[in-house]
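Readers of this paper often ask what the protein records in our data store actually look like. Such a record has a labelled line for the sequence and another for the backbone structure tokens. Nothing more is needed to write down the fold, since each code stands for a local backbone conformation. The record that follows is passed on verbatim for readers who wish to inspect the format.
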Amino acid sequence: MISYVPMLEKIRKKTKKLIKNDLFLAAIITISLVLIGVIIGYESNRVIPITKLTVNTYTLEPKNPLKFLSNWDGPIYLNIAKNGYDKGYLVNFFPLYPAAVALVHKIVKSLLDSGLVVAWGFLFGTFYYYIKIIKEYYKPKKREEIIKAVLVFALYPTAIFFLATFSESLFAFLSLGAIYYALKDHYKLSAIFAALVTMTRINGIFVLALVLSILWFKNKQKLSKIIKTGLLGSVGIVFYMIAMYIRFKNPLEFIKTQQNHGWLHHNIFTQLAHISILNSLFLIPVVVAVFYWWKKEISFSIYSILYLLIPLVGGQFGGFARYTLMIFPVPLMIYEYTKNKQLYYAIVIALFSMGWVYLLIQYSAGYIGS
């Protein structure tokens, strides 16, 4: 009679070993999040009426069942991937994500599917580096602690934009990669990631600033190494500025075009007087993070302060909730505070999950994009 005990024991050991693999865990979280997002978003379109403002929705592939994942800025990125910067005012959308989509589109027939392949692929990389940062920073003894930490980040309400044809997942992947290698003191790799992130979004310069502050405050590196990292890490945005000068005779054209989106027109204090409840819910944790990390990890505090400059300098809160997604010291702070308080952690996960589902439904119907 054949005994299955040795075979089952072998499978159990291999499964246990696989679960401990960071790539496997990142893949499981990514697949789960994408599947849940697609199911909820698709089904909600049968209940929630889609907005009649076609400017906020993707209309080029009306029969594509995943079109609800490309609203608001999503179609703009796809248009750039297909046609380039055919309109000057689009240059505030930085080029690395649409360039990646255009590259994938040479293989994948659907432009929308190409955008999602890029977004979901880099989402996997995002969770991988987030796991690495958790392990590097907290040295958790149990795998469950890593999962708990990642869930706070993965279910952060505006993390729904990781699933869409936005640059968020690429930006997060490059940012966390730069941060991880800075923590490991691999300054050249960190600088390369930082250079790429400055070609993805304008706030990539905040990531570069964080990398430099980690090398200075945490790693106590020599000034010469920090300067070299800063120079290499700024290559991306310098190249983009050169491209702007060649085409528009203005290396800061991407800042000028921000005015077309309502930035640099208003007084922040006037905006604060009329701030929405939603923006307040995202603003308060960032302010708290500044004070929370000031003595613990000053680099994280400085990074959080830089994001507070966005509405201060820009004069509005447009998109602020989405920008806070990459203020990773906020979910780290929440995890650190609640990790040994089971009730508080459960409440946070419950509230984040409800917020995540609510924003996903609103986004998939075309009502919100930030």
